[in-house]
Structures are given as structure tokens and as C-alpha cells.
Write a structure and sequence with these properties.
This protein is of the alpha/beta class and 253 residues long. The chain has nine helices and seven strands.
């Protein structure tokens, strides 16, 4: 009997973590349907690429249905084994500066889109007892100044992960991953010209380094594996141990 083709959908596929996740699933034999708001990167290892605006799939139902219809067509009547809600935006600002637009954009992309996409593709996920992975953040539990909107959205995403796992029961598993600092182009850009600050960031983690996108991808792939089907409603930290660290002024690098 021929092996059933496994399918995965990955949002935010053009970013550092997204690219690594797409590559990991591709190498594992999945047909990957990748999507992002930008044009397809030339070296992205996916079966199908859909350039789509995640924010618009929340605000515009007609647009959303066109996107989801394209995904269903790509599945060719088959089930969806993995939906990885990876896309996110990070608008920095505090209580004095965040605007209503900042909040709406952050919540639409980081929280409501994962719900809308899961809801829309639920029949395809349920058909093969698939798995949803929400890429949350350490900011769901521990944050810092000027991350108010982002941290709130990620705390809500982790909370929704647990609630959705309860709501769906054994139909579809839902888990989240909460990374700390990961070596992406975006992270590196924030430390341009400040190598000593980047090194200090690495030292803040008990592991002595920042994480790699490949590590997040490997964990994502592992959580989708049906052989660990009892893992459901979990929010898994991949943070180099920093979640257990209490800094004071004497300990700061």
C-alpha cells in the first residue's frame, strides 16, 4: 500500500523561523503549503507558495475564503496533518504610545489569525487527526518594557492553545512553542553595530547562547508526530533556561 502523502501549512514562511520549519517538514517528506505576505523566496523548499495577507484573512471574510479555497485545492481532497501558525508582528511601544491601530494589527495577526486559520481548516485537520502548532513566545510568561502589545498577544495565544485543546478534545491536537531569543535576521538587525550587546544577550541564557531556527523547527516537527499524541494543550518552552533565571543588578552581564 502506498504511503499517504502528509501535508503541512506554514504561515510566516519567509521569515527565519518560518523558513526553518518549512525546510524541516519538507525534509521529513511533507508536502508543504507555505504562505507569507511577501513574494516567495527563491530558495524556499515548499510544494506550493501562497502570497497572502494574514491580517486581511481576519478582517475580510471574502478574501479569507479565497485563501482557504486555494489551500483546500492544494490538498486535493486529502487531510491536513499539520498547521503551523508561525506568522507574527512585533510593534514595540508602551502604555503611553501604543495606538488603537497598533493593538488591532497585533491582535489580528498574532492571535485572531491563528484562530481563524484553525477554524477554517478544522475539517481537513480532523480528517487525519492532525495537529496545530502555535508559535508563541517567552513573552507569554516573561516580558520587558515596550513589549506590551506583543506580550499580551502571545500570552493570549498560549492561553488559546490550552483552551482550544480542551474544546476540541481528541479531534485535533493543539500545542504551542514559546521560544526565547532565536538567531534570526530580525534579531541580528536589532544588534547591528553592537556585538558586545549580542554577546551579553547570549550570556543571559544559562545555555550560554541564543537559540537557532533549526532547533525551533525540530521541536515543531516532533510535536506533530502522532506517536506523542498525549502531548496536547502544551506550551513548550525553548528558551535556553532563561525562564528560570532571576537577575538582579549584580548579576546583569
Amino acid at each position: 500500500m502506498a504511503e499517504v502523502q502528509r501535508h503541512a501549512v506554514v504561515t510566516g514562511a519567509a521569515g527565519g523561523i518560518g523558513r526553518a520549519i518549512v525546510s524541516a517538514f519538507h525534509e521529513a517528506g511533507y508536502a508543504v503549503i507555505a504562505t507569507d505576505v511577501v513574494a516567495r523566496p527563491a530558495d524556499l523548499d515548499c510544494s506550493i507558495y501562497l502570497q497572502s495577507d494574514l491580517e486581511s484573512t481576519v478582517s475580510d471574510e471574502a478574501y479569507a475564503e479565497k485563501v482557504f479555497a486555494s489551500i483546500r485545492a492544494a490538498l486535493s481532497g486529502g487531510g491536513l496533518h499539520a498547521l503551523v501558525n508561525n506568522a507574527a508582528i512585533q510593534i514595540l511601544g508602551g502604555a503611553d504610545s501604543l495606538t488603537r491601530t497598533d493593538w488591532r494589527r497585533t491582535l489580528d495577526v498574532n492571535l485572531l489569525a491563528p484562530f481563524v486559520w484553525t477554524q477554517a481548516l478544522l475539517p481537513e485537520l480532523e480528517a487525519v487527526q492532525g495537529c496545530v502548532i502555535n508559535i508563541s513566545s517567552i513573552h507569554a510568561r516573561l516580558t520587558k518594557r515596550d513589549f506590551l502589545a506583543y506580550a499580551t498577544s502571545k500570552a493570549a495565544l498560549s492561553g488559546m492553545t490550552r483552551a482550544m485543546a480542551v474544546d476540541l478534545g481528541g479531534r485535533v491536537r493543539v500545542n504551542a512553542i514559546e521560544p526565547a531569543a532565536i538567531a534570526t535576521e530580525m534579531l541580528a538587525a536589532g544588534f547591528t553595530g553592537r556585538p558586545e550587546a549580542y554577546a551579553a544577550l547570549a550570556r543571559c541564557h544559562p545555555s550560554g547562547c541564543v537559540g537557532s531556527t533549526q532547533e525551533v523547527a525540530v521541536l515543531t516537527l516532533a510535536l506533530v508526530d502522532p506517536r506523542i499524541g498525549f502531548v496536547n494543550g502544551a506550551c513548550v518552552a525553548i528558551d535556553g533556561g532563561i525562564g528560570g533565571v532571576l537577575h538582579d543588578l549584580q548579576q546583569m552581564p
